[in-house]
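Quick one:
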Amino acid sequence: MKFRKITADGDWTFGQGIGDFATESYAIEFNIATRVREWINDCFFAMDHGIDYTNLLEMGQQKRLLHAVRTTILQSYGVVGVNSVDIEILNERDYIITYDIDTIYSIGFTSKIELI
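Output:
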């Protein structure tokens, strides 16, 4: 699997040729980061893709948000199991997601997505 690398701000990288692409577990990591950042109804050609952050970042919705993120990660290509997911909500639009997964390439792969 190959996936275009993304910056800390969530932008694709360009200008480095093949160096702009990740493989194996890191490709899965970048794919997950892209999918978790996607808001439902935000992409004109895939309106049903993404997470319903508009409703799930409200008070009292943390269990549903955690379930939505966990499901999105588990349904990502190459993920065979989700060991843990933690969401730290900093304010109404900023949060940090930390997860540990098993992939087709590795066991216990841990990563963090900062959406600030």
